[in-house]
Amino acid sequence: MSKQTSAAGDTGEHGDIAELPFEKALAELEEIVRQLEQGNVALADSIRIYERGEKLKAHCDALLKQAEARIEKINLGAGNAPAGTSAFDPDA
Length: 92
Known about the structure:
Number of domains: 1
Number of helices: 2
Radius of gyration: 19 Å
Low-confidence stretches: 1-14
Helix content: 40-55%
Number of strands: 2
Mean pLDDT: 81
Shape: rod-shaped
Structural class: mainly alpha
Order of helices and strands: HHEE
Strand content: 5-15%
Largest sheet: 2 strands, antiparallel
């Protein structure tokens, strides 16, 4: 059984998903996608790693939203000098 297919579900060599930094969660998610695309995983293992992949994706999405909320846009004033900051608006 690979490290992504731990019978423990959200725990194992990678630890609890909620504790994973974005980069590690994304790398594990990419590995799960690779395994599933290859089609060489038993059905029960495929279901288990797919479910873990869903949790990893949700975790990555939440981390990205948190990061986006912390980003501030630098406002420029006269002469293009920094004149303060405002919340980042990705639609602006």
